[in-house]
Amino acid sequence: MEASNEIDQESKDCFKIGCTFGATLYSNYTQPFYYCISCNEEIDDESKVICVICAIHCHKGHKLQIGAYGLSQKVFCDCGGGSFNNCENMNQKNSLSSVFK
Ligand SMILES: [Zn+2]
Ligand SMILES: [Zn+2]
Ligand SMILES: [Zn+2]
To answer: What SS3 class is residue 100?
Structure first.
């Protein structure tokens, strides 16, 4: 399965704040999200989700599955939350604008 390249307005709003975990910490936040199949297999936990920014940035090239059929749900980003390897977005918020061109 491939991640869609289309980025809707709601997702774009997320880009302004970088990884949503940076803004919300462990409070659930209504946002579009993805499952990273590659990382979930690695830690043997398929319930972990990642925010859109992390899907595109930290998990570039990984096998992604959009969560909840593209709907937004109240989740927090497990990438920023430290479930996977270092989250790049928690450190590089300012460089995000160069990713989306
Ligand atoms: Zn994130
Ligand atoms: Zn991943
Ligand atoms: Zn991340």
So the answer is: coil
Domain ranges for the chain, please list them: 9-75
Reported as a single tens digit per residue, the pLDDT across 16-69 is: 557 888 888 888 888 889 999 999 999 999 999 999 889 988 999 999 999 876
Is residue 84 pLDDT above 60, yes or no?
yes
Q: What share of the chain is helix, strand, coil (3-state, %, to 5)?
A: 35, 15, 50
Opening angle at CA 23, ends 81 and 84, nearest 5: 15
Looking at all shown ligands, the one closest to residue 78's CA atom is: 1
Q: How far is the CA of 30 from the centre of ligand 1 (A)?
A: 13
| CA 96–ligand 1 middle distance (angstroms) | 12
pLDDT-derived band of residue 96, with 50, 70 and 90 as boundaries?
very low
CA of 18 to the centre of ligand 1 (A): 7
- Find the 78 Cα to ligand 3 centroid distance in Å: 8
